[in-house]
Write a structure and sequence with these properties.
The protein has three helices and twelve strands, in the order ββββαβαββββαβββ. It has 214 residues and is mostly beta strands. It folds into two domains: 151 residues, Electron Transport, Fmn-binding Protein, Chain A (Pnp Oxidase, Chain A, Roll), CATH 2.30.110.10; 57 residues, Rubrerythrin, domain 2 (Single Sheet). The protein binds fe (iii) ion. The site of fe (iii) ion has 8 residues, from loops.
Length: 214
Amino acid sequence: MEAAAFFKIGYGLYVVTTRDGEKDNGMICNTIVQVTNTPARLAVTINKQNFTHDTIKKTGLLNINVLDESASFAVFQRFGFKSGRDSDKFEGFEFTRGENNLAVLSSCVNAVFELRESSYIDLGTHGMFICDVTAAKVVSDKPTMTYAYYQANVKPNPLAGLQKAAGEKKKWVCKICGYVYDPEENDGVTFEDLPSDWVCPWCKHPKSDFEPIG
Ligand code: FE
């Protein structure tokens, strides 16, 4: 099985926003697709390790903010590289609220969907939420941020300035999000010595999605 084949599938990139009590949260997601037209339904698939998964399970509500090509790397860092469990994703970030009171990004978004969970499919590592669309709005005509555009134009080149010196323990980079695992920043633990179920702290992809630098 060629892993590269999976990268040929076209994806958009989205910020899924949720609200648990008074806590707003948001995460980057690419696994969103319209599955039926009448009624309009979207399937949203979320890794169970994400705080967002638990919040949707609890509240049944979520918004999809469709990112456009103006979204900067800072937007991906903010919503993609840390957990809402221990941080406020919206601190210092401008947003409004939808009819369902969930957060809506004020910039770099070309459309917004408000969703309500109608059913749930347990996919092991992930949960798929089949959702009714309760509101849909076009915000701008800017092109949607695709995963390919992100890889080519938004994600910093992790190899730039990271030359491995002789005798240094090897750094590994996540091919998905660009996170760099540096043994020097992890008590000298080499990437090879990490447990097999270790996942990328940013995007939660497995060790198999990493490649060595240098
Ligand atoms: Fe990653």
